[in-house]
Hints:
Radius of gyration: 43 Å
Strand order of the largest sheet: 4-3-2-1-7-6-5-8
Amino acid sequence: xxxxxxxxxxxxxxxxxxxxxxxxxxxxxxxxxxxxxxxxxxxxxxxxxxxxxxxxxxxxxxxxxxxxxxxxxxxxxxxxxxxxxxxxxxxxxxxxxxxxxxxxxxxxxxxxxxxxxxxxxxxxxxxxxxxxxxxxxxxxxxxxxxxxxxxxxxxxxxxxxxxxxxxxxxxxxxxxxxxxxxxxxxxxxxxxxxxxxxxxxxxxxxxxxxxxxxxxxxxxxxxxxxxxxxxxxxxxxxxxxxxxxxxxxxxxxxxxxxxxxxxxxxxxxxxxxxxxxxxxxxxxxxxxxxxxxxxxxxxxxxxxxxxxxxxxxxxxxxxxxxxxxxxxxxxxxxxxxxxxxxxxxxxxxxxxxxxxxxxxxxxxxxxxxxxxxxxxxxxxxxxxxxxxxxxxxxxxxxxxxxxxxxxxxxxxxxxxxxxxxxxxxxxxxxxxxxxxxxxxxxxxxxxxxxxxxxxxxxxxxxxxxxxxxxxxxxxxxxxxxxxxxxxxxxxxxxxxxxxxxxxxxxxxxxxxxxxxxxxxxxxxxxxxxxxxxxxxxxxxxxxxxxxxxxxxxxxxxxxxxxxxxxxxxxxxxxxxxxxxxxxxxxxxxxxxxxxxxxxxxxxxxxxxxxxxxxxxxxxxxxxxxxxxxxxxxxxxxxxxxxxxxxxxxxxxxxxxxxxxxxxxxxxxxxxxxxxxxxxxxxxxxxxxxxxxxxxxxxxxxxxxxxxxxxxxxxxxxxxxxxxxxxxxxxxxxxxxxxxxxxxxxxxxxxxxxx
Length: 754
C-alpha cells in the first residue's frame, strides 16, 4: 500500500567512502536526508531525479538516486522487504520505475569500462562488478597503457581507497584514436578535480585568518575558494561548506566570518573544520567583479561594482556563490548589551555566541553545537572557588555523550543565559523542583562573598537530599498497612519486647545498659569480647544509659509482606487503543506473510507498518467508541460498589491483625523454650555437668569442680531488687542459660593459661 510519506531512521549516505548515518524522508516533493553528526540536510526535488536503482551491497540493500546534473546519492541500510514499498511510492509520486541491478560476483579483474553520467561502471558478463563515482576522483594520470585514478580521502572512514589503476590494451581495429587518452578525458570531464583555470571572480589581498592562523590572499572562484599564503595553500570546494556565520566581536571593532566545512581542510596532520576570518568593521573597500557570463546564475544578488565595508562585500559574495544562508546572532543580549559571552573553553579564552539554533564558540578551538543534538545543559560552580562564586561554568552535554564545558563566565551573565536556555526549551540538568525563577536559583548558586564561606553547591546537594527524604517519608506513610507499628496496651507488651530495644512502657529503665540491649546484640558483643574485657564489662556501671527511641526491628514476620492487590473480576476492562485494534486485525496477515516470525519481530514489524498507515481514522473512531463505553461501564461499576455494604469495619479488622501477630509471637516463644530446656535443669549431674564446671587434670570430684567454679566465674553484677512478673522471670532464666553457655566457652578457652 503506497503512502504519501516514507521515513527511515537508520539509513547511511555514502560520502567519499564513509557512511554517514542519518534519517531519510520521501515525500511528494522529493527526497530529504539529514545527517545525524553534522546536521547537514540534502534535498532532492522529484523533478531533478533521472533514475533510481536498487542493488544488494555489503550493508543490506542500496538505493541509488541519480540526478539530471550527474550527481548521485547512495543510501544504504535498507532491508529486502522495503523494496515493494519504495517501488510503489516512486511509481505513484515520481512516475519512476525502480530498476533492480544484479552485480557480478565472479571476481574477474577484466571486463568492459562504461561511462554513464557521472559514474564509471566496470562490467563483467554484462553485469557491473563495481561502480566508481567520478566526483570522488581527485586526480587522474596516464601512463603508457594505463590510467591511474586517485580519490579524495575522508577522515572518518576507517578504510580508504587510495588509488585504482586501469590497464587499457591497444586497439586492433586500426583506429588512430588513443584509447588511453580517450579514457583519461572521459574521467576528467566528470571528476572533482580542483583546477585554478581562468581568472577569479575577485581577489582580496592580505586577509587575516585566525584559523588557520596567518595572512592569506583570498581568491573567489565559481566552484571553490582559494587561500594563498607564504607557506600553505588551501582550496575549499563549495560542496564541502556546511554553514556560514557572521559574528560581531565583543569590542564592536571587528567582525568574524566563519565557514564550517566537512570534510575539513588539513595542514599536515592538523584538521581545521572551521575557517575563521577577521575583518575590521570600519575598513571600506571598492572592488570590480569578473562577471562577464555569470549574471544569470546569480540572479542579480551581486553586481560587478561593489563598495562598502569589507565584511559586507565578502558575506554577500559568498552567500551568492556558495548558495548558503548566513547565520547571524539572534535575540540574545548579555548584561553589557552585546551578542556574546566571554568565557574559556579548555585552555583557550574566547566568546560564546548563543544563536537561535545552537551555540558557537570562537575561536580556539572553535566549537559549534546545535540544539537538536543537545541532551541537557548544566550551570555549575567554579571548583575551588572558596565560597566566593564570582563566576560559573556552563556545561553542554550532547546526545552522543560528549560534554563541552565553558568556564569562567561572569556572575552577571547568569540570568540572561538562564532565561535564554529556558526559552529554547533545553533541559537544565541541576534545577530542582522549587527553582521557579532564575533569580532565586542564582542566589543559591552564587551565594557567598570573600568573608562568607558558604558552599552553594553543598547547600544545593543538601536541598536535593531533603527532597528525596520527603519523598521517602511520603512513600513510607503510604505503606502504613504493611509496616508494623505496635500500639500502647497490655496485650502489645509481648510485641514490644520482641521488636523494641526498650520493652518497658515507661521511659525510666530498671536495669543497666547491658539489660536494655536486645538478645542478638548481646550475643554479638559477647563473641567479640575477650575474657578480660568481659570481666570489666560485668562490673556495675554508674553512668545513666542513653535514652533510645523505639524502633521497629528490620526483621518482620513473613505474614506482614506487602501483597499485590487482587483485581476485581467485575470491574470493566480498559479499552484498547487504535494501534491495538489495528494490530488485532493485521496480526494474522503478518504471521502468514512471515512464517516462523517471533513475537518480538512481529511487534517490531507491526510498529513499522503502523507508521506507514496513511488513514487511521477508522481505528481511531473505534478506539473512541470503546473509550466512551468504558467510561459508562466504569460509572455504573463505581455506583454499584458504593451501594454495596462493607463486610468488615475497620475496628473489626484491627484485632484480627493483632491476633495474627500475637499468635506468631507465642509460637516463637514456645520454640525458644524448647531450645533452652536442657537436661541440666533436671538435676542429672552424672551425665550433664553444669556450665560453671571447669575440668582440670588434677581432680574430677564435684568439690574440686566447685572450687574451680568459684575461681573462674567472674564477679556478678549487683542488680537492684524489683518485683518481677512471671514473664520477666522466664526471660531472665533464658538469658542466664545463654550467658552460662558463653561463660563456659570463655572459661574453657582460658583454662590452659590459668
